[in-house]
Design brief:
The protein is mainly α. 72% of the residues lie in helices and 3% in strands.
Length: 125
Amino acid sequence: MEYHIKEAAEKVGLPPHTIRYYEQEGLLPFIRRDKNGNRIFNETDLTWIDSIVCFLKTGIALSQLREIGELAKQGEGTATKRKEIFKEHKFKLMEKQKDLDKALEKIEAKIEYYEDMESNLLNHN
């Protein structure tokens, strides 16, 4: 099935201007256009847009996604390089996750500390 930008935007839950921005930034290298120059999206395009949104939430750099798009245009021979970009980003995410887990433990300890404090106050009143 094919979609114009308004329909595609509704499907992926983004405003059309965001999708246009992604294309301008080189993140959507395979978007086709109809005879009038309107963007045409297929299911694969929508899946990639959804992936971009997910990847951006992880903090990946636009430049890395742009590079992946450029490499994708070059074909399957660039799969190893694309995989390496994702592996590098995964490593950074795992390090960040360790930091977040440590911070979460500290927050949980503080919550427990304050719950104990509240409990002691209630028991003494």
